């Protein structure tokens, strides 16, 4: 192999595919990045068998080839190279030479033939949306993906195409995050469960350009995200996801509207006193125009007051403050509405305007 | 006690004294911040018995007092308070109430009488210089303070007042960092050894204002830094420091001048290949106009070339790359001179212009 490209293209591409490189694995080839020449292009691939990422950059190919380089040392070298043209040559003994200005590295390569191919995805059923929108949807839901493996299906997010919209849902047993966004063309109904890890990694490589799009393709076993220069393929999770639709009832006995940021700050302060573990809830008491938040532990007490608009009954209810904070941090709107049925039923948090985001959270039973 | 001040003053002050609060100690009172009222002022103190910091802010004192609050929870509360006036009240049962806008916290306090006083320092022998200069001097020397406790005196830096200048020196057995700065007034000769930890913490609280000064007072056992609103008192280390003066000879057999940043980048790249431990040196070969840096380990090889001006003999020498990198990072000048005697003697790195900074480093013997 003999190929050259710019340092910046190469670094950019290495940083993208690194997100799919295993750091600890029993299969050493998975700790490598695959380099494969194409016509006027160099394709890099990382693959941990669950998640695979390909990224293609312009290159001058003097001699085609396909080899694998240990990702850690290769990425460190590329990161430190001067900003110049990089020449990569691999000889018959699989010795790779990386040359750039007055720097030259030699490291040993492995045959590309041993690198596991990415699954071939038939590009059939697909949807297209802005990368920035999908990034937002992930940000607003990923924090309530289950981390425990007791119900493996909940370590992923449900992605539904239904009624002209894309819906994303995550559930960890204590709360449900829901976000939808309308799709510009009518699409066939579909639903899959994507590992939380895949969504976390992919949201890091989404472009910040307002106009950049991502196309998503589905098969029974896999999902493929096409970002233009990069392609991400992930395994899907198998199993039955929670039926979330009925959880988000519009009924309430008490409804408050409140300034999101003021509420967030008050809960964060009250949470300081309950930091000693999840067993210390914060208590919320609300009447017609006032919400009082209190926390009381061996550390001391906190007392917070803030103005609200209340419709319906006065209420006292208690929550794990972390679960409230998580949601209030990802909502972009200035004002939120919170809907309650009773102190024993879940409440629903949503922006006052719009129905694209909803969050459900279970209360903690107070020992009164 | 009943006192009020602004949230921003209080937070600033808490952040300063926190640097002297013990996180792990057998004496729980040392995990506290002492709050002491003065006339129209509130004084905060942290003290871990080696290092003590006082910081004073303007305050309205309605009732004087002196109490200690657990530093972790108190600092977390102050950090999260709204930007408003903060009222601190402590009742006869040592219950402290912290009020700010619509937030109110109650945490228990301890009697200030149990808090260890800072040593009384007689303000006699002193020098004054810019905070920014002392911060620079610390940055350029602190990295070669010994971390191992085999020779406790070397875990500190030598501070000398001699010949109208302030000199700072640190030594860790492999290298010596030296920095001096002229003093504007003639001062009595003096020398003390200050714990590296003290210098590390104090350099974080130095102001970035160009004109802010620090006065330094010495006794046999202590050093005091007066920053205006804050005072830092530290124990000195006892013992004989290394006689460093003769190490920095001006003699050489080989002298090169080289672009500092280019050399730093080349060494950082070559070090990638020798990362597997200190036993892998980088090799430097220099002749009249060229420096070749190589590294060769089981990971591969690196080869770097860069232009230099050489006076004297050609030379081959090897170093632990980290020790070169540390010095090249803290020198501010564009060009450095490196003086060698032989491949077995230490070399000296210094800016081409000026003699305020010098760095000595021992080579690694090559098995040729």
UniProtKB/TrEMBL annotation, chains A, B:
Describe the family membership recorded for this protein in Swiss-Prot or TrEMBL.
Belongs to the beta sliding clamp family.
Query: In its keyword annotation, does this UniProt entry include Iron-sulfur?
Result: no
List each copy of the DNA polymerase III beta sliding clamp central domain by range. Answer: 128-241
User: Which protein is depicted?
Assistant: Beta sliding clamp
The GO annotation for biological process reads: DNA strand elongation involved in DNA replication
Instruction: Enumerate the spans annotated as DNA polymerase III beta sliding clamp C-terminal domain.
Output: 250-365
Q: Membrane-spanning residues where?
A: none
Principal subcellular localization: cytoplasm
Subunit description: Forms a ring-shaped head-to-tail homodimer around DNA.
Q: Which organism is it from?
A: Defluviitalea raffinosedens
Name a GO molecular-function annotation. 3'-5' exonuclease activity
Q: Which GO cellular component terms, listed alphabetically, does the Swiss-Prot or TrEMBL entry include?
A: cytoplasm; DNA polymerase III complex
Biological function: Confers DNA tethering and processivity to DNA polymerases and other proteins. Acts as a clamp, forming a ring around DNA (a reaction catalyzed by the clamp-loading complex) which diffuses in an ATP-independent manner freely and bidirectionally along dsDNA. Initially characterized for its ability to contact the catalytic subunit of DNA polymerase III (Pol III), a complex, multichain enzyme responsible for most of the replicative synthesis in bacteria; Pol III exhibits 3'-5' exonuclease proofreading activity.
* Organism lineage: Bacteria, Bacillati, Bacillota, Clostridia, Lachnospirales
Q: Where in the cell is it found?
A: Cytoplasm
- Describe the location of the DNA polymerase III beta sliding clamp N-terminal domain by residue ranges: 1-119
Annotated keywords: Cytoplasm, DNA replication, DNA-binding, DNA-directed DNA polymerase, Nucleotidyltransferase, Transferase
**Which CDD domains does this entry report, sorted A to Z?**
beta_clamp
């Amino acid at each position: 192999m003999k190929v050259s490209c710019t340092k910046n293209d190469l670094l950019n591409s290495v940083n993208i595919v690194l997100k799919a490189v295993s750091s600890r694995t029993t299969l050493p080839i998975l700790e490598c990045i695959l380099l494969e020449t194409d016509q006027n292009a160099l394709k890099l691939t990382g693959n941990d068998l669950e998640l695979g990422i390909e990224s293609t950059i312009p290159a001058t190919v003097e001699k085609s080839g396909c080899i694998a380089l240990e990702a850690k040392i290769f990425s460190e070298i590329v990161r430190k190279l001067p900003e110049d043209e990089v020449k990569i040559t691999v000889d018959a003994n699989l010795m790779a030479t990386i040359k750039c200005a007055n720097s030259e590295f030699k490291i040993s390569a492995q045959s590309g033939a041993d690198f596991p191919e990415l699954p071939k995805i038939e590009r059939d059923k697909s949807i297209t949306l802005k990368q920035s929108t999908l990034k937002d949807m992930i940000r607003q839901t990923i924090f309530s993906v289950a981390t425990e493996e007791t119900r493996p299906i909940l370590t992923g997010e449900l992605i539904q195409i239904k009624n002209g919209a894309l819906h994303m849902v995550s559930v960890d047993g204590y709360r449900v995050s829901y976000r939808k966004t309308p799709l510009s063309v009518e699409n066939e109904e579909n639903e899959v469960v994507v590992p939380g890890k895949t969504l976390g990694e992919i949201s890091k490589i989404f472009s910040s350009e307002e106009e950049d799009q991502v196309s998503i393709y589905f098969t029974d076993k896999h999902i493929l995200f096409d970002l233009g220069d990069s392609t991400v393929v992930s395994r899907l999770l198998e199993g039955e996801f929670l039926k979330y639709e009925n959880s988000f009832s519009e009924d309430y006995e008490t409804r408050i509207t409140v300034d999101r940021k003021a509420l967030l700050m008050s809960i964060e302060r009250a949470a300081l006193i309950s930091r000693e573990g999840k067993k210390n809830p914060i208590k919320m008491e609300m009447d017609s125009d006032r919400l009082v938040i209190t926390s009381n532990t061996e550390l001391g007490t906190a007392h917070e007051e803030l103005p609200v608009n209340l419709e319906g009954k006065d209420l006292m209810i208690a929550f794990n403050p972390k679960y409230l904070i998580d949601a209030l941090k990802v909502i972009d709107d200035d004002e939120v509405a919170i809907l309650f049925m009773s102190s024993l039923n879940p409440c629903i948090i949503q922006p006052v305007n719009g129905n694209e985001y909803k969050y459900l959270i279970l209360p903690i039973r107070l020992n009164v």
